[in-house]
Amino acid sequence: MPLPELSQSTIAFTREVQVTDERGRSSLISIPAERPLTVYLDKRELVTLMSMGCNPEALVLGYLRNQRLVRDIHQIAAVQVDWEVGAAAVTTRNGVAGIEERTAKRVVTTGCGQGTVFGGLMDEVDQIVLPDQARIRQSALYRIIDTIRTQQSVYKKAGSVHGCALFSQHGDLLYFVEDVGRHNAVDAIAGKMWLDDMEGGDKIFYTTGRLTSEMVIKGAQMGIPILLSRSGTTEMGHQVAEQVGMSLFSRCTGRHFLLLTHAQRMVFEPELFAEVMTVTERV
User: Fold this and answer.
1) For the chain: N or C, fewer Cβ within 10 A?
2) Catalytic site residues (predicted)?
3) H or E segment at 39?
4) 189 and 95, same domain (yes or no)
């Protein structure tokens, strides 16, 4: 069965606005766009996502996947995004059974931009089992941090957005997505993985935002056992990670990180610090 037919919609990610600084000087700066995208599933209005507009087709696919509304990507015939009306029309091949009951209850999450998950989704966490053998080497973690630091991004130009990225176990960048909400960015990566039939068991996920319960649950649903963030975590994010067997790394900047859960996945490399000390002594 073929993959969904996707529109190739494009739209500006930033716009210029005039500002006045503390000295009364005027200048132009770039700010990220934020626009509504209403998702229709077989002509039924499902949700309105506030998005910058990057990768909207992948965003919609990832949202459907992470909400467990569609289990198989081949059930979807097409995703057509039209920014003139701010809508994404999703057409399935045979409909979605029980869609009214499955979307009746929503939970407002702590995601920036006020993310939501459907209530029944929380009940599926107990069924998630992440691979025991997944590991991350300290050198790979540092490579990921360095890659994010040098990555060309809307954030560097305009700020006010979150970025998420998927890496191989060796620290190779596979996907990088930005949006006004981190939940959108992770959903877009989930959509890309779905389209590429990519498994998450040997992957590492990075986000610039907090490791909330929503982010941990979505990462677990994508089968990813290791999550990194330059920010912190919440109590429920920590609790869910412990439960599903996920390793959380917070405050990942420079050569610093805090490993919060399932420390057995970390392969420490003390020689990395020996090299740093040697260079420092020479200087």
Assistant:
1) C
2) 112
3) strand 35-41
4) no
Q: What does pTM read for this prediction?
A: 0.86
Whole-angstrom distance, CA of residue 17 vs CA of residue 231 = 29
Q: Are residues 266 and 156 in the same domain?
A: yes
Q: Which residue has 């993959």 as its token pair?
A: 3
pLDDT given at position 129: 84
User: Please, are residues 119 and 107 in contact by the beta-carbon 8 Å criterion?
Assistant: yes
Contact indicator for 73, 3 with CB cutoff of 8 Å? yes
DSSP code of residue 4: P
Return d(Cα 256, Cα 254) in angstroms, integer: 6
Q: Which residues make beta-bridge pairs with 253?
A: 256
Each residue of 200-218: pLDDT tens digit?
Answer: 999 999 999 999 988 999 9
Please list the residues that pair with 15 across neighbouring strands: 31
Query: Is-contact 181 112, C-beta < 8 A?
Result: yes
Helix extents (H) in the chain: 56-66, 99-102, 138-150, 154-158, 182-195, 213-221, 235-244, 271-282
Alpha-carbon gap, residue 32 to 15, rounded angstroms: 7
Question: What's the structural domain count of the chain?
Answer: 2
Assess whether 145 and 235 both reside in one domain: yes
- Would you please indicate which residues are annotated as catalytic (active-site) residues? 112
* CA-to-CA separations, 255 to 139, 144, 150, 168, 239, in angstroms, rounded: 10, 11, 15, 19, 26
Domain with 266 in it:
136-271
Query: What is the rounded radius of gyration, in angstroms, for the C-alpha atoms of the chain?
Result: 20
In a domain, 128, yes or no: no
State yes or no: pLDDT of 119 exceeds 80.
no
The secondary structure of 55-69 as a DSSP string is SHHHHHHHHHHHTTS
Q: With 0-12 CB in 10 A as exposed, 13-18 as middle and 19+ as buried, what is 207?
A: buried
| CATH code assigned at 197 | 3.40.140.10
**182-195 and 56-66 helices cross at what angle (nearest 10)?**
90
